[in-house]
Amino acid sequence: MIRFALVLLVLLGSAAPAVAQSRLVSERLVSKAFSGNRIGTAAERRITVYLPADYDTGAKRYPVIYYLNGFWEDETRPFAITDAKTQFDKAGFIVVTADFTTPAGTSWYVNSPVTGHWEDFLIGELVPHIDARYRTLATRESRGVAGDRVGGHGAIRFGMKYPQVFGAVYALHPIGAGSGLVPMHTRPNWDRLTTAKSVDDLGDDFMSKIFTSIFQAHLPNPDRPPLYFDPVAEEVDGELRVDSAVRRRLGDSFALESLVPAYAGNLNSLRGFKLDWGRNDANQDHVWSLQAFVRTLDEYGVSYEAEEYRGGFGDRTWGDDGRVATDLLPFFERVLIR
C-alpha cells in the first residue's frame, strides 16, 4: 500500500504542465470620432483582441493584423460562428476586430458626417490604443490590415490612404471595386427609399439597406433627414431619372478603381498587397468589377498579387482549406516583420 502511494505521488509530480492557450479579450473603447453623427452611432465601440498562446508566457512583441468584417458583422463574428480562433492559432499574430456596423449594415470604413468618422476611429484611436495596451511591434512594417467582402473594400482603402500605418493589405473577395454589369442606381427600391421614415422602414429589403449604407457613407447630407443622403436617382412620372452630378460624386468617392490614380504610389510603398475573389459569385458585378480593378492597377504600375479562385461569395474564407488558412496567414507571415 505504501509502495503504491509512493508510485502515485511520483506520477502526479511528473504530470505534464498545462499547455498555454490563446485567448480573446473583449474591450470597449469610448471614441471621440462619432460626435454629431446623424444616425445615433454610439461613442462606445466594442473590440475583440486575439492573443496568441505564448503571449502570457514571455515578453516578446507581436505583429498585428486588423481584421475588418462584412455587412451586419460585429467584432465577435469571426470567433462566434467560424473557426477563426483555431485558424489564428496557426500563426503568431495579435488580431484585432472592432464593431463597424451601422443601422443600415456597415460604415464602409470611411469618415461621414452622417454615420461618424470611422477612419479617425481606427487610425487615430484604435491603433494607438492597441499599441499602448498590448505588446505589439508598433511599426507599419509589422502591422497589416485585412478584411472580408465589405471589410476587404475597407482594407484596400486603408492601405491606399494610410500606408504610414499599415505595411501590408490582404482583401478577401472585396466588393465596391468599381462599375459592374448592372447600373448602381437600379439596385435599390427608390419608392421605399423616398417614403421611408427611418432605416427600419426598409424592413427586409436587403438591397435597399446596402445602398443606404453606401449613400450615407459616400453621399452624406446631414440636412436631409430621415436617411441623410443625396439621392442618385428619383422616380418622375414612373421613370427613374439619374442625377448625373450626384452619380459622379458617388463614383469618385466610393469606387476603389477611381482612387487608384491618386493612391498608386501609396500602394507601391506597401510591403505586400494581395486580393482574391471567387469566380462563381452569384452577383457577377463583383467579379466583373474586380477584374476591371486589377487592370486599372496594371495601368498605373501598382505591384500586387491577385487570384480568382473557384468559389462563391465568401464561402471559402474559413476552415482548414479556407483562404484565411491557406493564403491570408501565410501572406502576412511572409511580408510582416517579426
TrEMBL record:
Pfam family, one: Esterase
Signal peptide: 1-20
Keyword RNA-binding: no
UniProt keyword annotations, A-Z: Signal
Keyword Ribosomal protein among UniProt keywords: no
Cited PANTHER family: ENTEROCHELIN ESTERASE-RELATED (PTHR48098)
Protein name: Esterase family protein
Annotated organism of origin: Asticcacaulis biprosthecium C19
